[in-house]
Amino acid sequence: SSEPSKRMLWVSHMTRIRDDQDRAAFAELFDHFAPRVKGFLIKSGADSTLAEECTQDVMATLWHKSHQFDPSRASVATWIFTIARNRKIDLLRRNRRPEPEDLTWGPEAEPDQAEVLGLQQESEILVSALAALPPAQRELIEKAYFGDLTHSEIAAQTGLPLGTIKSRIRLALDRLRHAMK
Amino acid sequence: MTDTIKHHLNDAILMAYSAGTLPEAFNLMVAAHLSLCDSCRAQAESFDALGGALLEQSADTEMDNNSFANTMDLIAGGDIDVTMPAAKTTPGVLPKPIQDYVGGDLDSIKWKPIGMGVKQAILPTSKDATARLLLIPAGTAMPDHGHKGTEMTMVLKGAFQDDDGYFARGDVEIADSDLHHTPVADIHEDCICLAVADAPLEFDRLLPKIAQRFLRI
Ligand SMILES: [Zn+2]
Ligand SMILES: [Zn+2]
């Protein structure tokens, strides 16, 4: 499929931004990811103005912190997700989220290409497995991440019993883990 | 890093940490456990990958007309990240995320006695959940209690035992309304734990309600 090569293309865009401050590479990442980040923030409860402003911050952070991106540990999408998640917590929840010790994003040396390819292929499998989940399971995972809702809040919103929500999420994770084996 | 940890965080907590929906005190618990536990750290990274996969597949939202130009202006203004560089910490008994709250390692903790030789130090987090360090003298039992919400206790030094098992450094006990327990510190040394809770604990005896409110347990 053309997807893994697209994924590797995004990785090389990150390298071009880091090494050459390449605007064209950044523009392509922006076109693809900024509208998704904005959608994520709106689903998390931001109004459209705040979501727009926050998305621009997230994309600017991607530029400034491009040296911290490690393609042997995360896809570009995952890295952007973590930046957007942290920004969301700062802005919407006004809460702190301490990071674990020694968890420095950012390779000390240029990461091994085979590892990079392996990680990027794995991300591809995860995306396909997620797309293949039964809609009821997928929807709950999405709510848990993007709706900014706890399991009990999802229960209140959907009218589903808490136990059903927990077991659907568990089933979804089992399926994803099975696909990743 | 240790591979001796037997009691870990669960999927629900790790997923919520990745999604960013936990109260600050719970985030601190997760960050502290991940600092000691490779396997949960790997799990946490997969939950971030799941967030990335969701982001990749999510529908486009329309951007403002000048969005890209404004972003390039932001970039030209330089890195706006004003987060203070984390305080320098030295490896010690307390994992770094806890040291950041205490302002150092064990000898920087400002203990307050709460009776029966037990001491606590409340850490400054947002109010939706509480975080405290507890020092339980060797061989001492905590008052018998139940839980209204979720309580997580991680051992940092020494060990404790209750009906659910034996908990040593890095082990986390996750207690909810189903669990009613009397943790007893191991006889060999004082036990220091990080305990977080999103609702007050329910003591059956020893601590009257008013003392509970006063001590903010
Ligand atoms: Zn663990
Ligand atoms: Zn308890």
UniProtKB/TrEMBL annotation, chain B:
It comes from Roseobacter denitrificans (strain ATCC 33942 / OCh 114) (Erythrobacter sp. (strain OCh 114)). Pfam families: Cupin_7 (PF12973). It comes from the Bacteria. This is Anti-sigma factor ChrR. The lineage of its organism: Bacteria, Pseudomonadati, Pseudomonadota, Alphaproteobacteria, Rhodobacterales. Residues 105-194 form the ChrR-like cupin domain.
